[in-house]
Design brief:
about 350 residues; alpha/beta; Isopropylmalate Dehydrogenase; ten-stranded mixed sheet; binds 3-isopropylmalic acid; binds magnesium ion
């Protein structure tokens, strides 16, 4: 029987609670669809850092490479200064494992209230391919003359042609595979970021015209993208963009699909170890209350199965979530679902089984 080794990083706040429900559903999917999952827990996160002073063991990436995938709850602790854990755990793993794609579906499930008037599941169903290895996230820059009136801070957006090309390749291939309306939209800012997005735009049209002539290419500035994501989300099929814009527009996308309770993402290295996570944070105020919505983690688990090649199991998870949102949950919001965290996990797992 096919066996996959999965590293589980519950992380901080409500992370472990939602990861637990994700694992529950993954186990149900595995036994139903005839493969095995071996889970190993890792205690990376704020608590471990506060106890030991170490953010991530030096060999963490190496350790993660021994697995087929990583399943992550959430990173972010109220007693740790912002940036330390995010950079030291989440971003470090993304970079060291070269997970250069951040795949973020924006999909409104049936039964979920959409904050946009007149839009429903038919209109909100697209995928953002966020580049995940470059841009302002590379840490290129620094501060000089600190604490003087002349202090200078520089943080550069950095992209190489190689990074842009591999991300575009992934996005074109995904557009072809999705067969929605065969449209790939580049989200940029060619009117101001005339170096970075000039590179993206040239690479986009070159690759598209040469290798994907059947795929329609659209271009939107990032500010306009935000507007159209609200006004005409049905235009979108696949959106490809840089790391920073991708970070921003996917929070907007998440709220149009019902919020952080359901938004999932995958940090993907198509030839290596990928990491799947609910994209909301650690929601510390709900920790331990059994009220947080685990569907985002469950959907992240579904994406993980798809990436591992277990597409039937992945489809079953999505179908189960669809049934639960359509027929059971009162709301996606923490504490207002009509069910506890563990009960929502049970509902989905039962349908997968
Ligand atoms: C995300 C998050 C992270 C990011 C933070 C926590 C570093 O906002 O995954 O979208 O900016 O990528
Ligand atoms: Mg973000």
């Amino acid at each position: 029987m096919k066996t996959y080794k999965i590293a589980v990083i519950g992380g901080d706040g409500t992370g472990p609670e939602v990861a637990r429900e994700g694992v529950k559903v993954l186990r149900a999917a595995a036994s139903k669809h005839g493969f095995k999952l071996e889970f190993t827990d890792y205690d990376f996160g704020g608590e471990r850092f506060l106890k030991t002073g170490e953010v991530l063991p030096a060999n963490a990436a190496e350790e993660m490479r021994r697995h087929d995938a990583i399943f992550l709850g959430a990173i972010g602790h109220p007693d740790v200064k912002p940036g330390i854990l995010e950079k030291g755990i989440l971003l470090r793993l993304r970079f060291e494992l070269d997970q250069y794609i951040n795949l973020r579906p924006v999909k409104l499930f049936p039964g979920v209230e959409c904050p946009i008037k007149g839009k429903g599941p038919a209109e909100i169903d697209y995928v953002v391919v966020r580049e995940n290895s470059g841009d302002a996230y590379t840490g290129t820059g620094g501060i000089t003359m600190k604490d003087t009136p002349h202090e200078v801070a520089v943080q550069s957006s950095v992209y190489t042609r190689h990074q842009v090309d591999r991300c575009l390749r992934y996005a074109f291939e995904l557009t072809r595979k999705r067969k929605k309306n065969n449209t790939l939209a580049l989200c940029g800012k060619t009117n101001v970021l005339t170096y970075i997005y000039d590179l993206w735009e040239r690479a986009f049209h070159e690759m598209g015209a040469r290798d994907y002539p059947e795929i329609r290419r659209d271009y939107y500035h990032v500010d306009a993208t935000c507007m159209w994501m609200i006004k005409n989300p049905e235009w979108f099929d696949v959106i490809v963009t840089g790391n920073m814009f991708g970070d921003i527009i996917t929070d907007l996308g998440a709220i149009t699909q019902g919020g952080m309770g359901i938004a999932a993402g995958g940090n993907i290295n198509p030839k290596g170890v990928s990491m799947f996570e609910p994209i909301g944070g650690s929601a510390p105020k709900y920790t331990g209350k059994n009220v947080i919505n685990p569907l985002a983690a469950i959907c992240a688990g579904g994406m993980m199965l798809d990436t591992l090649g277990e597409s039937a199991a992945a489809a079953a998870v999505e179908a189960a979530v669809t049934d639960v949102t359509a027929t059971k949950l009162k709301s996606l919001a923490a504490g207002r679902m009509g069910y506890s965290t563990t009960e929502v996990g049970d509902l989905v797992a039962a349908r997968v089984s």
